[in-house]
Structures are given as C-alpha cells and as structure tokens.
TrEMBL record:
Keywords associated with the record: Oxidoreductase, Thiamine pyrophosphate
GO cellular component: cytosol; oxoglutarate dehydrogenase complex
The enzyme's E.C. designation: 1.2.4.2
Protein name per the record: 2-oxoglutarate dehydrogenase E1 component
Cofactor(s) essential for the protein: thiamine diphosphate
Domain Transketolase-like pyrimidine-binding residues, every copy: 24-217
One GO molecular-function entry: oxoglutarate dehydrogenase (succinyl-transferring) activity
Any Pfam family: Transket_pyr
PANTHER family: 2-OXOADIPATE DEHYDROGENASE COMPLEX COMPONENT E1, 2-OXOGLUTARATE DEHYDROGENASE
SUPFAM superfamilies assigned to the protein according to its UniProt record, in alphabetical order: Thiamin diphosphate-binding fold (THDP-binding)
Signal peptide: none
One GO process term, biological-process aspect: tricarboxylic acid cycle
Amino acid sequence: VKFLRKAERILRDRAKMVFETNTLDWSMAEIFAFGSLMEEGYNVRISGQDVERGTFSHRHAILRDEISSKTYNLLNTNPKNKGEMTIYNSLLSEYGVLGFDYGYAMAAPNTLTVWEAQFGDFSNGAQIIFDQYMSAAEDKWKQQNGIVILLPHGYEGQGSEHSSARIERYLQLCAIDNMTVANCTTPANFFHLLRRQMKRNFRKPLVVFTPKSLLRHPLAVSTMEDFTNGEFQEIIDDTINPDNVKRMVFCSGKFYYDLLVEREKLNRNDIALVRVEQLFPLHNDKIERIISRYKNVQDYIWAQEEPKNMGAWSYMLQRFELKELKVRSRKYYSVPAAGSSTRFKLRHQRVIESVFDNIKE
C-alpha cells in the first residue's frame, strides 16, 4: 500500500503526538472519541459535503492507495472494535442530507450519527430540520434523538459567508433541555462531549460550534491524561490568582485564545478569562461557584467576536443570573463579518482591546 505523501506525513505526525510530544490536537480528539466508542460497541456514522478529508484537511478518515485507488477506513482496522464506522461525502443538499441523518439517528440510537456542515453558515439550507424536528420533536411527539451537528465557526477574515455558524439562531431554539449547544476550546473537552452523547441513558441533539484555526493552534492541545482522567467541563475557570482579579471576562470558543494571547502580551493578571464550553443548558450554579472565588471583581463582561446582535450575547443577557453583565463585541451589523480583510482585522482588534480597557475603580 502506498499512500500520498501528505497522508503519510499526517500519520507520522499523529504517532508523534501520542508517543513523543503528548500534545494531542483536534483530529486526535475525534479519532479517540470515535475509536473508543467503537471498541465499546457503538457504531459511528458521519456525513457531510467534505467529511472524509474534512473541510480544513484535519480528519483524513479515508486514505487511498496511490496506485490502486483502493480506500482504507483506518478506524475500521482495529481488531478490538465491536462497532463500525461509516463516513460519506454527501450531495450538496443540506436539507435532504440532514433530514435523512435525523431519521437515521432516530432509528439507530446506539449509533453516533454526525452531520458536519462544510462551513457553519451553510446549515441554513437545512433550517426546516432544525426548527420543526431537532428543537421541537421531543416536545411535540415525545421523540428523542441523539444526532450530532458539527458547525465550523470562527472569525478569521474569510468574509461574511465563511465566518459565523449563527450561534444566536440555535440558542433561540433552546428551552426545557431540548438539546445541547457547545463551543469547546480544548480537544479533550470535545472528546468527552462526543463520548457523553452516547454514554448517557437518554438522547438529545447536540450542536457543536467547531473550530477552524484551532485545529492547528499551538495552544489548543490536550495531554493524554486530559483524555483518560478527565470529563466534560461545562465551564472552565481561569488558573490565575483570584485575589488579583478585578474583571471577570466570560467567553466561548476560539475567541478565548485571541484574548489569552492579548492578556499575556499586556501582562494583565487582573483579568480572568472564564470559558463557557456548554452554552445550553447553562447551569448558573456552576458559574456562581466560580464567581465566588473572586472577591475583588468590579466588572463582569461577556466577550464575543460576533456583532452585538449576533453570537451568544442576547441569550446570555436573558439566561445569565448576573444583572451587571456587560458586553464587549462588534457593533450591530447586518452581516456576520466584513468582506474586507483589512476592515476585519481592525474590527477584530478593536473588540479585543475593549476587553482590556481601563477598569474603573
């Protein structure tokens, strides 16, 4: 068997992560989640417009022999498997494919059924499935469903059509524990989230806003111990000394790393960055326990890279039991992001700087 040189390099890099550096990235989190579930007897099914390779070339679940063109699904080669993985590059109809996958997940509750959008905003082609089935089926028909929706999301200068998965629209559909909405910042937390989806004794749809730049971000890595000893963390507290903190900043997803880099650059140990990994259900008691550690806080901020009329801000304003919560975000806009790369960078940096502006005594 002779794989393409790029595929061989990817396999070498993955082996190096496990056996040498102990810094595992997002692709390894997926492999570990799918592979461990298969060993435990669960099947895995993935579909979407570019899922075999992954839109951002991180997955490479199917490898091809350069000479014979024969395909290999590496996760199916494990002799310990009790389950099977199937993965399909789908046709370009989000509505049709997601409708089929929703029905598949309903008929096969012990299969981790995953639909991944090529970019998160492309999911609007399947809006009927989200509105009429995913968010409402249990309330209308007492019908549970464990489908997983992966929506690539993040502001990285790719324009208005390739930046936002429209977080605000999914959060607007959330009520009475009808589904789970998450925006993870670490590979290990994503791993535990996927496993939890099958290990629960009930089924709820799971919407995950997945990263793009974090797939290869040097800070967005986890150790083997994070996978083997940890569990899914709905909220991740900061590790700085709480006695020095005067401003608490709550954020979610990739924007956390933008803020973290800026904080280190400015050496601002008076600002805590708290990550909300699970946006819904939002458990305020867990947030309150974290807040109670910080005795000298004067400002509470929700920070997001999306415009003020988008993202999670409106939802947090309603659900967050903290009346003095303020926001740092882009202004109100009719499109998620600027088409101009220069304008995008200016707006993005302006939001980051506003998070670290002067704290009023």
